[in-house]
């Protein structure tokens, strides 16, 4: 039996747990190193690839863009009003002051505190975002806890023996697992990766569960999917968002129906994780002020950009909040 509370758009399921049917995901922006050359006459300070926004929306959530270069109080404010955070992939450095990595570290630590206090708050990292999760968990030092890796192709997932015990995969249907395990439907595009040694060297194996691996172009076995054993923090090295929303012909992304179906699993899973807390904005006007609908994506693919569309931001003062 499900009782719907229309006023708050929450559901109380038979177990008594509350499910949020209006989830909002924060997507962290990043420096414009890889896109600024497309718009040389405008000083854009950060961007978000639109494929991450579309992927999130396709799973039934809305998006709030999150600024880089802000004080901790900004991230505390945002996380109190949204239901999860996506660290997207891309191309930026982790040693830039007040950049993507600093913002990610604030968010990671605030999310830890929320979960420690019984407030279920998930983070999902894709590619660069996955690497950032592990580097933050390692303790950000001068030497980054990741290795050089070169993987620019489509792969299948090599699942671990216990992958079905992971939260990420225990609810996945057998046909989705079969596609992921046997067909080359995961898009890899990375020059760094996380390997087992990165976990053992920083005593992370007791806190993180690896559920699948990939093989790079030189035969290095890298971790493809991982999750924290205590916190709802998840990372994948590949790019589910590219299957349905990136169309650059030279990249040879798989656009088959099986590829689309299998890759939908990851954002569907994450958005469902975000439904487990009831964070919300104070009122509809404040919510509207923060949503990404206030910004228009640019067709960067027509300029030869790596992404089909991007959101670019001239100011770090997103969301009308300082």
Automatic annotation (TrEMBL):
Active site: 127 (nucleophile), 239 (proton donor), 239
Entries under Pfam families matching the protein: Peptidase_C26
Keywords from the named record: Hydrolase, Secreted, Signal
Alphabetical GO biological process terms: tetrahydrofolylpolyglutamate metabolic process
Location in the cell: Secreted, Extracellular space
Superkingdom: Eukaryota
GO CC terms: extracellular region; vacuole
Coiled-coil residue windows: none
Gene Ontology molecular function: any one: gamma-glutamyl-peptidase activity
The EC number(s) this enzyme carries: 3.4.19.9
Cleaved signal peptide residues: 1-16
SUPFAM superfamilies found in the cross-reference section: Class I glutamine amidotransferase-like
Reactions catalysed: (6S)-5,6,7,8-tetrahydrofolyl-(gamma-L-Glu)(n) + (n-1) H2O = (6S)-5,6,7,8-tetrahydrofolate + (n-1) L-glutamate
Major location category of this protein: secreted
Family label: Belongs to the peptidase C26 family.
Name listed for the protein in its UniProt record: folate gamma-glutamyl hydrolase
Source species: Leptidea sinapis
């Amino acid at each position: 039996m499900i009782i719907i509370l229309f006023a708050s758009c929450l559901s109380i399921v038979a177990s008594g747990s509350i499910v949020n049917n209006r989830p909002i995901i924060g997507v962290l922006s990043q420096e414009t190193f890889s896109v600024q050359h497309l718009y040389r006459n405008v000083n854009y300070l950060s961007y978000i690839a639109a494929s991450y926004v579309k992927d999130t929306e396709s799973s039934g959530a809305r998006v709030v863009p999150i600024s880089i270069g802000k004080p901790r109080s900004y991230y505390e404010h945002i996380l109190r009003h949204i239901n999860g955070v996506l660290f997207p992939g891309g191309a930026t450095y982790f040693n830039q002051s007040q950049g993507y990595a600093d913002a990610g570290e604030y968010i990671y630590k605030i999310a830890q505190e929320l979960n420690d206090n019984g407030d279920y708050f998930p983070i999902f990292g894709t590619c660069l975002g996955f690497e950032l999760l592990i580097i933050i968990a390692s303790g950000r030092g001068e030497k980054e806890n990741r290795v050089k890796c070169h993987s620019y192709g489509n792969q299948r997932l090599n699942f671990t023996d216990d992958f079905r015990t992971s939260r990420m995969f225990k609810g996945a249907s057998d046909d989705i697992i079969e596609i992921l395990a046997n067909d080359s439907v995961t898009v890899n595009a990375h020059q760094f990766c996380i390997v087992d040694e990165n976990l053992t060297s920083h005593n992370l194996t007791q806190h993180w569960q690896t559920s699948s691996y990939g093989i790079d172009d030189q035969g290095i076995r890298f971790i493809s999917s991982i999750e924290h054993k205590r916190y709802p923090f998840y990372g994948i090295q590949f790019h589910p968002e590219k299957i349905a929303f990136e169309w650059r012909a030279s990249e040879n992304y798989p656009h088959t129906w099986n590829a689309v179906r299998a890759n939908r699993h990851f954002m569907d899973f994450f958005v469902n994780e975000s439904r487990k807390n009831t964070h919300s904005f104070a009122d509809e006007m404040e919510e509207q002020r923060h949503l990404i609908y206030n910004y228009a994506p640019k067709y960067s693919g027509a300029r030869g950009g790596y992404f089909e569309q991007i959101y670019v931001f001239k100011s770090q003062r997103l969301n009308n909040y300082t």
